[in-house]
Write a structure and sequence with these properties.
CATH superfamily: Spore Coat Polysaccharide Biosynthesis Protein SpsA, Chain A
CATH architecture: Alpha-Beta Complex
Strand content: 5-15%
Shape: globular
CATH class: Alpha Beta
Radius of gyration: 19 Å
Number of helices: 14
Strand order of the largest sheet: 3-2-1-4-8-6-9
CATH topology: Spore Coat Polysaccharide Biosynthesis Protein SpsA, Chain A
Mean pLDDT: 93
Largest sheet: 7 strands, mixed
Number of domains: 1
Number of strands: 10
Length: about 300
C-alpha cells in the first residue's frame, strides 16, 4: 500500500507478564508497515510494564477498569486513522492489520470490523470454547475490535459504567452511524509457515498446516479453568442491567443477546450453522452445559 494509514493498537493489561510478550510479538510480526503500539496498564505488580517497554515506549498507567483503559489509549493517546484494541492474552496472525485496513477502505459503509477469533487450548473444555466461539463471529454476540478512530471518538468510546457488555454497547452506538463488517479469513496462504509464533499456536491445539488462519486473532485463554471462567462471567453479568437500561429491554439486539431462544438455539442454527452441531456432538454437549452454567450466573447476578 502506498502511504498506508497509521493503525494504533491498544493493549490493556493488569498483571499479564505471562501473556503480554506473545501479544506484542504478534504485533511486531504484522505484515502491515505502519503500526503504533500502546500499552495501557492498570498498576501491575508483576513484570508486565517492564516487558512492554521492550517493545514500545508508549506504556501508560490507567484504571480502574478496561473500558477506561481502552478509551484512554484509543482516544487520548492514539494518533492513528484507525484504532483497535487487544487483550493481553490475544495473538494476532500476521495478516490481521493489513486485511483490516484493506477491507474497511474497500467499502465506505463500514465504520468498524469484527475479527474472527480462535480459542487456544488442548483440553476438552478449551475445545468446547473454541467450537462455541466459531458460531459468534459477526453476530450480535460478537464485538467490534477495529475502528475508524474519528467514528470511535464521535460515539464517545466505551461506556465506563459497564464491565462486560460495553463491547455490545459500543456496537449498538456504531450501528447508529454506519455498518460493522466481519473480516473474512484467509485460507491456504503461506505466511504462517515461517511465523515465529507458529510453534506456540500449534502446541496450543491449532493445526496451522491444515487451514490458513492468517487474518484471525488467537485468544490464549490457557487450558480451561471452569471456576475462573464462571467467576468472570458472573462479574460481567453485574453490568447487564446498566446495559439493558441504556437501550431498553425490548431492543432487538438485547433480546437476542440476553434472550433464551437466540442464545441457546438461534445463533447456533442460523445460516446453516446447525450442521456443525451434528458433526461434533461431543463438543455440542459440552457447549450446552457451559451455556447452562453461564445462564445460572446471569439469573443469580443480583445475589
Amino acid at each position: 500500500m502506498n502511504n498506508p494509514p497509521l493503525v494504533s493498537i491498544v493493549i490493556t493489561t493488569k498483571n499479564e507478564a505471562k501473556n503480554i510478550e506473545n501479544c506484542l510479538r504478534s504485533i511486531q510480526e504484522q505484515s502491515y508497515p505502519n503500526i503504533e503500539t500502546i500499552v495501557v496498564d492498570n498498576a501491575s505488580t508483576d513484570q508486565t510494564q517492564e516487558i512492554a517497554k521492550r517493545y514500545t515506549d508508549k506504556v501508560f498507567n490507567k484504571g480502574p477498569e478496561r473500558s477506561a483503559q481502552r478509551n484512554y489509549g484509543m482516544i487520548e493517546i492514539a494518533e492513528g486513522d484507525y484504532v483497535m484494541f487487544l487483550d493481553a492474552d490475544m495473538i494476532m496472525a500476521p495478516e490481521v492489520v493489513t486485511s483490516c485496513v484493506q477491507f474497511i477502505e474497500s467499502d465506505n459503509r463500514f465504520v468498524a470490523l469484527h475479527i474472527p477469533e480462535i480459542i487456544l487450548g488442548q483440553n476438552y473444555w478449551s475445545q468446547v470454547r473454541r467450537f462455541e466461539r466459531t458460531f459468534y463471529n459477526g453476530t450480535v454476540i460478537d464485538g467490534a475490535r477495529f475502528f475508524k478512530k474519528a467514528i470511535f471518538v464521535q460515539v464517545g468510546g466505551f461506556d465506563t459504567s459497564m464491565s462486560g457488555p460495553e463491547d455490545w454497547d459500543i456496537d449498538k452506538k456504531l450501528k447508529q452511524v454506519g455498518q460493522i463488517g466481519l473480516l473474512p479469513d484467509l485460507q491456504n496462504a503461506n505466511s504462517l509457515k515461517s511465523w515465529p509464533l507458529n510453534q506456540f499456536i500449534t502446541e496450543s491445539g491449532i493445526d496451522l498446516n491444515k487451514t490458513g488462519y492468517e487474518s484471525v486473532i488467537f485468544h490464549n485463554e490457557s487450558e480451561f479453568d471452569m471456576t475462573f471462567y464462571l467467576n468472570k462471567k458472573g462479574y460481567y453479568a453485574q453490568s447487564f442491567d446498566t446495559y439493558i437500561n441504556s437501550w431498553g429491554k425490548n431492543d432487538p439486539d438485547i433480546k437476542k443477546q440476553l434472550g433464551l431462544f437466540y442464545r441457546y438455539f438461534g445463533v447456533f442454527l442460523e445460516q446453516g450453522k446447525w450442521k456443525r452441531l451434528f458433526r461434533h456432538p461431543v463438543l455440542m454437549v459440552g457447549m450446552y452445559w457451559l451455556r447452562f452454567l453461564v445462564g445460572i450466573k446471569y439469573i443469580m447476578r443480583h445475589n
